[in-house]
């Protein structure tokens, strides 16, 4: 009886794999297998099933290449979808999406930012944070956004936000929700906190600022902070509440002074140039 099973199967397989006539794009080779007219590799192969030779369909080279290409295209589409999604959640302010290396002047601040991105693996492994400080209009947020966009383009999760926004969102939350919200920042390989120092300075606000900074510290993941505050102020704060925030920041971040040409002024200059040309002044 046990011998009967393979016989039954063999009959079924024979009917399934009966050698077929060559199709329009096929021809029969000297080995009896069908070949693809296009790539001249077989569209059939011989396999042993229950001790018998069977001829089964297989993919010729051009079909294999087409499948590999389709897989590559699907992966590319999926990757682009993932990047779009990462950008939508990581950078909520639309204008920041346009701040990238492609539109940046090639100054020393931008070169530093490019190296930060190039060395990202090391930056992350060594948890190398940055404190970008400098006067208003020097382009600290621009530099940070360039880094954010370049990493997001590589599929690396980045969140660029600021404390005004964080405090605003936390305002409507219960303490348990607040905790989860702060913990959710650990989902981002890089956290960028823009414009430290412009948020409210109430006891509650400073408590939350410390909670966010401290959570990042515990996560062991890098953070980039931008601020208009003077580095001396950060190193020697007057107030205890600020002192514990700033000392945590200095533990995580290397201060880098951003001195770049005033971007807003230079945009102003470009505009003036355009106006001159348009109005033929
Ligand atoms: Zn082929």
From TrEMBL:
It holds the Pfam family IstB_IS21. One of its GO terms (biological process) is DNA replication. SUPFAM superfamilies: P-loop containing nucleoside triphosphate hydrolases. One of its GO terms (molecular function) is ATP binding. Residues 79-266 form the IstB-like ATP-binding domain. This is AAA family ATPase. It comes from Coprococcus comes. The lineage of its organism: Bacteria, Bacillati, Bacillota, Clostridia, Lachnospirales.
């Amino acid at each position: 009886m046990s011998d009967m099973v393979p016989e039954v199967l063999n009959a079924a397989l024979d009917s399934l794999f009966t050698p077929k006539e060559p199709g329009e794009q096929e021809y029969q080779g000297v080995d009896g297998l069908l070949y693809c007219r296009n790539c001249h590799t077989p569209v059939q192969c011989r396999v042993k099933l229950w001790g018998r030779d069977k001829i089964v369909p297989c993919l010729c080279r051009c079909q294999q290449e087409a499948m590999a290409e389709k897989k590559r295209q699907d992966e590319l589409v999926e990757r682009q979808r993932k990047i779009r999604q990462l950008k939508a959640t990581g950078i909520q302010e639309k204008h920041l999406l346009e701040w990238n290396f492609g539109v940046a002047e090639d100054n020393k601040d931008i070169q530093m930012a490019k190296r930060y991105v190039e060395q990202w693996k090391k930056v992350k492994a060594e948890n190398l944070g940055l404190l970008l400080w400098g006067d208003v209009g020097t382009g600290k947020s621009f530099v940070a956004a360039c880094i954010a966009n370049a990493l997001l383009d590589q599929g690396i999760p980045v969140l660029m936000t600021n404390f005004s926004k964080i405090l605003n969102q936390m305002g409507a939350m219960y303490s348990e929700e607040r905790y989860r919200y702060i913990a959710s920042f650990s989902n981002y390989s890089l956290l960028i906190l823009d414009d430290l120092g412009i948020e409210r300075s109430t006891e509650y606000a400073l408590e939350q600022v410390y909670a966010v900074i401290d959570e990042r510290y515990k996560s062991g993941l890098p953070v980039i902070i931008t601020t208009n505050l003077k580095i001396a102020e950060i190193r020697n704060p007057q107030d205890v509440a600020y002192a514990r925030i700033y000392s945590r920041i200095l533990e995580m971040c290397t201060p880098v002074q951003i001195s770049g040409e005033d971007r807003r002024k230079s945009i102003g200059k470009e505009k003036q140039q355009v106006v001159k040309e348009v109005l033929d002044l």
